[in-house]
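Need tokens for this chain, all 137 residues.
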Amino acid sequence: MNNHLKTVSAIYDAFGRGNIPGILEHLSADVRWEEWADNTAQKAGVPWLQPRNGKMEVPEFFKIIGSLRFIDFRVLSLMAGGNQVAAEIMLEVEIPETGRHFRDEEMHLWTFDEYGKVIRLRHYTDTAKHMAAAGKV
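Here are the structure tokens for all 137 residues:
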């Protein structure tokens, strides 16, 4: 069995260092990033919460969030069960494009395949905060 907690910890460590290739190495080729059937923030056009299909599209997510100013980003806890890891996150971000700011407490749900690669990521957020910060309301 793969150690999914260790993998998610490594992903967040790589994120903190700005090591995007270090994150991508943990993703499956067909990863579904922000795949939702019905998501208000996606419909409103929040750029960093748009779906990305496949490992080749995920760098666009990091390009977008790389333009944001992170005031704080903390992994509060990690919880694992089966092929999933949930991460409790606290973040505070300023959006230079809009001059807006938000603080959110989120859950990130990571789903793994049988090879230990991430096949899906979903951010469970306060979509109203993200929409307001992106200037989409």
